[in-house]
C-alpha cells in the first residue's frame, strides 16, 4: 500500500495528478462548477443535445413504460424492444446491413477488437488512436503495430512486411479526439484494398458531426462500401450514452456470440436507448445544428490562431491549444476558471509527453458573444503565462 502514496506524490510533483470535479448543473453551453456558472469549452456535447427537451421527454416516457433498470444482460432477459428500434435506426443511419449497441465506447472497442483479432493476426493502429482501442488490441493478444500519426508511407511499409499474418486489421479514429484532425480514411481504404487488409473505424467524435445526414466521416467521404467495421458512440454529439458498431449481418451475429463486454454486462437502461433513438431522428432532421457547430468552430479556431496559438491541424470542433508543460497547462486552466471559462488541461498519458494542452471544444448552442469574450480572456491569460 505504500506504493499508492508514492505514486500519488510522483504524479503531483510532475504536475500530472488528476482530480475529479463535480458538475452542479445540466450539461450545456454554460455549466455550474463549485457554485459558479461558467462557459463550458470542453464537452463533447457537440450539438447541444444532452439536455434537449425532446430527449428528456423520450427518456421519461421510456421509464414510465419499461422502468429504470433492466435487471439482466441482453442475452438473458434485459434486451428491451427499444434495442431493436435503435439498432434498426442505426443501420439505416449508417447504411449498413445491421448494427449492435454496446454499453459505452470503451466497452465496444475492447469487446469488438478482442473478438475480431487473435494471436495469429496483426492490428495496425494510428499512434494517436483512443486508449480504448489500444486496450482492445492488448486484450486480443494480436500482434500490435502503431504507425506514425496519419502517415500512409509508414502504414504501407508495414503492410508490405506483414503478409504472413492470418489477418490484418487497420484501426483508426476518424476524428482524433485530442488533436481534432481527420484521418485520411480514403487512403487507408485504398491501402487496405491493395494489401487485402480489413478496416475498423472509430467515429466517436464524428457521429452527428460529419456527413450530409450527420452519420460521420465515412459518409462525408462516401466510403461506406469499403469499411466493414464502423464503430461510434452515442455519448458525444448524440447527447445520450452507449456505443454502436455498424457492419454486415454476419459480423454482428459473430459479435453477439463473441464480444465479452456485450455478453457479460447488464443491458442499457430504457431511458438511455429511447433518448438515443430520439437524438438520431433530430440529427437527421436538423442539419442546421451541424452548420451552427461548424460556424462556431471556424470562428473560435480563427480567433485562437489570430492570437498566435498553435492549434495543430484541427479541422473539427475540437481545437487544441498546445502548451507543452503540464504544470503551466494546469495553471492556464485554473486562471481561465477564475475568469468564468471552463476547460480542463489535457496531459500525458492522454497525450504524448511534452504536448500538454488545453483542448477547447465548441458546440452548436454556444453564443457568438460568449465565444468572443472567451477569446479575449484566453489570449490575455496566455500572454501573462508567456504561452503566446
Ligand atoms: C470517447 C471515445 C471513446 C469512448 O467512448 P465512451 O462512450 O465515452 O466510453 C472511444 N473512442 C474514441 C475515439 C473516443 O473519443
Strand content: 15-25%
- Fraction of residues in helix: 40-55%
User: What is the averaged pLDDT score?
Assistant: 97
Give the SSE order as H and E letters.
HEEHHEHEHEHEHEHEEHHHHEHEEEH
Major sheet: size, sense and barrel closure? 7 strands, mixed
Short characterization:
This protein is of the alpha/beta class and 388 residues long. The protein has 14 helices and 13 strands.
What's the structural blueprint in terms of helices and strands?
Blueprint: H1 2-14, E1 30-33, E2 36-40, H2 53-66, H3 81-94, E3 98-102, H4 105-116, E4 122-126, H5 131-140, E5 143-147, H6 152-161, E6 168-173, H7 185-195, E7 198-202, H8 217-221, E8 229-233, E9 243-247, H9 249-258, H10 260-263, H11 270-285, H12 287-306, E10 318-324, H13 326-338, E11 341-342, E12 345-346, E13 356-361, H14 368-384
Parallel strand pairs: 2-11, 4-5, 4-6, 6-7, 7-8
Antiparallel strand pairs: 1-2, 3-9, 8-9, 10-13, 12-13
Helix pairs in contact: 2-11, 3-11, 4-5, 6-7, 12-14
Bound molecules: pyridoxal-5'-phosphate (PLP).
Describe this structure as you would to a colleague.
Helices cover 44% and strands 16% of the residues. By secondary structure, it is of the alpha/beta class. The termini are far apart. The model has no long low-confidence stretch (mean pLDDT 97). Pyridoxal-5'-phosphate (PLP) binds at residues 104-106, 109, 130, 132, 173, 177, 202, 204-205, 233, 235, 243.
